[in-house]
UniProtKB/TrEMBL annotation, chain A:
<keyword id="KW-0813">Transport</keyword>
<feature type="transmembrane region" description="Helical">
    <location>
        <begin position="103"/>
        <end position="127"/>
    </location>
</feature>
<dbReference type="Pfam" id="PF01061">
    <property type="entry name" value="ABC2_membrane"/>
</dbReference>
<dbReference type="GO" id="GO:0046677">
    <property type="term" value="P:response to antibiotic"/>
</dbReference>
<dbReference type="InterPro" id="IPR013525">
    <property type="entry name" value="ABC2_TM"/>
</dbReference>
<keyword id="KW-0812">Transmembrane</keyword>
<comment type="similarity">
    <text>Belongs to the ABC-2 integral membrane protein family.</text>
</comment>
<keyword id="KW-0472">Membrane</keyword>
<dbReference type="GO" id="GO:0140359">
    <property type="term" value="F:ABC-type transporter activity"/>
</dbReference>
Automatic annotation (TrEMBL), chain B:
<dbReference type="InterPro" id="IPR003439">
    <property type="entry name" value="ABC_transporter-like_ATP-bd"/>
</dbReference>
<dbReference type="InterPro" id="IPR025302">
    <property type="entry name" value="DrrA1/2-like_C"/>
</dbReference>
<dbReference type="InterPro" id="IPR017871">
    <property type="entry name" value="ABC_transporter-like_CS"/>
</dbReference>
<dbReference type="InterPro" id="IPR005894">
    <property type="entry name" value="DrrA"/>
</dbReference>
<dbReference type="Pfam" id="PF00005">
    <property type="entry name" value="ABC_tran"/>
</dbReference>
<dbReference type="Pfam" id="PF13732">
    <property type="entry name" value="DrrA1-3_C"/>
</dbReference>
<keyword id="KW-1278">Translocase</keyword>
<keyword id="KW-0547">Nucleotide-binding</keyword>
<dbReference type="GO" id="GO:0043215">
    <property type="term" value="P:daunorubicin transport"/>
</dbReference>
């Protein structure tokens, strides 16, 4: 009970801070919008080809949303570094607030903003008139997006506590997220990849996230990825949230 | 007793090496007093405070804070203490009122109770005017007042203040001293760290001097200064300092002569000595110098300060540390 109450408190503070700087919510949308208008047209001739059976845009947009969730969440640690430096985290750790809540509240606020950004992106994409949106599928896809954001936000917060500096954080996140993104089939479906790269992708949890998002977006509920993604992401999320919570409880900043 | 520690130790690992930040600290802080931990940077003040406020676990030793065992009942300790860190505790796009209400709620207050208490606290720290402005627009003194206001939102029995006046201008500093005295009058005990001698002297009922992770002296500022009985005479001598030191040491009314390092620019070394009666000793000392044809570069006579206490215990001056 106390954990839930405390999580809500930390969450509402984080959301309030988000809403006071709405610029950032829009800035995080800029990159996917570039991809939507400057890269997606390149894929249009692929419509119906292997990997694009659901349609070019219908394949690309769900992947793009996962990418946004990846990058958006991976960078939340930056805000935490500033708060660590200003003593905000230390101040809260001296209160009886639940340690899990300090972590969960912040993570959940990232999940919330990611969901809104995803919806905004789907709406924008549908306005181009080049894809069919199956809304029940979108709703289910958002669950995968939420798990992705949840997990990456936890990792990012944990890393922020370990690294304690923006200068170390930026290259670490990039080194980590770039390859994960490239071999998750966001840009082009992995069926186009050589066999060895496909084998590597099999070990990338976000490969399943992208697959599941595409299937759900198209309204296909019974593919393997649709159950694989939540199981793999869910298990990893639990481990990483526990890890990040420990970091929070012991942070020496 | 609000705080009682026995053999409190903290060892950090830094680049494979063990660093003993705090090596066996025994302290006792009474209800309602202002207790100061005075020492140079890196002496272990902050580490000691962070252990006592549950932020880091001691490597060894035992402590009871507000009647609760620090190691086993940290949750109960947290409820009874307030803590204001060196970095403060607020930032950017939040207002004082929002942060205070949030702080109260983190301590389990209802929204209504927290809002009411925030009004009270804003008033008593003269922050009412700025209550709904973003913290980033605050001056250093205003921000520091808010930091302390956050620390006492839940009316703790004991408030930890880590270097409360570091970086403040003289006026804000005087203000902060008044705040601390005011809190004490209302019954809150205060445990503060400082490297300012005048602050320790003016503000603390009792203090402990810490150096290299160990307590070297403890008592009221007055008692500590009395230990260094008599007066302090400091004579600056260029070139022939060693000769002058011998000369002074030979006088039977001089208890101890300590020679400082010569100033690299002027070559003047300061010889400090403790004497029973400064007014009587000074002419004697000058006559001695005159007879040996040594011209002093400076002469000072003063009552012992906390710096003399520190100097006596550690052989170093706290002023030089900064």
């Amino acid at each position: 009970m106390k954990t839930i109450r405390d999580t809500w408190l930390v969450y509402s503070r984080a959301m309030k801070l988000n809403l006071k700087q709405p610029v950032w919510l829009i800035v995080m949308l800029v990159q996917p919008i570039y991809f939507l208008f400057l890269f997606a047209p390149l894929l249009e001739p692929m419509d119906g080809m292997p990997g694009f059976e659901n349609g070019a845009m219908e394949t690309f947009v769900p992947g793009l949303i996962i990418m946004m969730a990846l990058f958006g969440s991976a960078f939340v640690g930056f805000g935490l570094i500033a708060e660590l430096r200003q003593g905000v985290i230390e101040r809260m750790r001296v209160t009886p607030v639940s340690r899990v809540a300090l972590m969960l509240g912040r993570t959940l606020s990232t999940v919330t903003t990611t969901v809104f950004q995803s919806l905004a992106l789907v709406l924008l994409a549908s306005l181009t008139g080049k894809l069919d949106v199956y809304w029940p599928g979108v709703a289910l896809m958002l669950l995968i997006v939420m798990l992705t954001a949840f997990m990456l936000a936890a990792v990012s917060l944990g890393l922020a506590i370990i690294l304690k500096s923006e200068d170390a954080m930026a290259p670490t996140i990039n080194t980590l997220v770039q390859p994960i993104m490239l071999i998750s089939g966001i840009m082009l479906p992995m069926v186009m990849a050589p066999q060895w790269l496909q084998n590597v992708a099999d070990f990338n949890p976000f490969y399943y996230a992208v697959q599941a998002s595409r299937d759900l977006f198209a309204g296909e509920m019974s593919t393997a990825a649709v159950w694989q993604a939540p199981v793999i992401l869910g298990a990893l999320t639990i481990v990483l949230v526990l890890w990040a919570t420990r970091k929070f409880a012991r942070a020496v900043a | 007793m609000l705080i009682e520690t026995k053999g409190l130790k903290k060892t950090f690992k830094s680049r494979g090496k063990q660093v003993e930040a705090v090596r066996g600290v025994d302290l006792a802080v009474k209800e309602g007093e202002v207790f100061g931990l005075l020492g140079p940077n890196g002496a272990g003040k902050t580490t000691t405070m962070r252990m006592l406020s549950t932020l880091i676990e001691p490597t060894e030793g035992h402590a009871v804070v507000c009647g609760h065992d620090l190691a086993k009942e940290s949750a109960k300790v947290r409820r009874d203490i307030g803590y204001v860190g060196q970095a403060g505790g607020t930032w950017g796009e939040v207002t004082a009122r929002e942060e205070l209400v949030m702080q109260g709620r983190l301590y389990g207050m209802s929204k209504k109770a927290a809002q009411a208490r925030a009004v009270e606290v804003l008033e008593s720290f003269q922050l009412g005017e700025y209550a709904d402005r973003n913290v980033k627009t605050y001056s250093g003194g205003q921000k520091r007042r808010l930091d302390i206001a956050l620390g006492i939102m839940h009316q703790p029995k004991l408030l930890f203040l880590d270097e409360p006046t570091t970086g403040l201008d003289p006026q804000s500093r005087a203000h902060m001293w008044d705040e601390v005295r005011g809190l004490r009058e209302r019954g809150t005990a205060i445990f503060l760290t400082t490297h300012y001698l005048d602050e320790a002297d003016a503000l603390c009922d009792r203090l402990a001097i810490i150096d290299h992770g160990e307590i070297v002296a403890e008592g009221t500022p007055l008692a500590l200064k009395k230990e260094v009985a008599g007066d302090v005479v400091a004579v600056g001598v260029a070139d022939r300092a060693a000769e002058a030191q011998e000369l002074f040491a030979a006088k039977d009314f001089v208890r101890e002569v300590e020679a400082g390092e010569p100033d690299p620019a002027t070559g003047v070394a300061v010889l400090r000595m403790y004497v029973e009666d400064g007014a009587a000793a000074l002419p004697e000392l000058l006559r001695g110098l005159d007879a040996a044809a040594i011209t002093p570069a400076s002469i000072e006579l003063h009552r012992p300060s906390l710096d003399d206490v520190f100097l006596k215990q550690t052989g170093r001056s706290l002023r030089e540390e900064k």
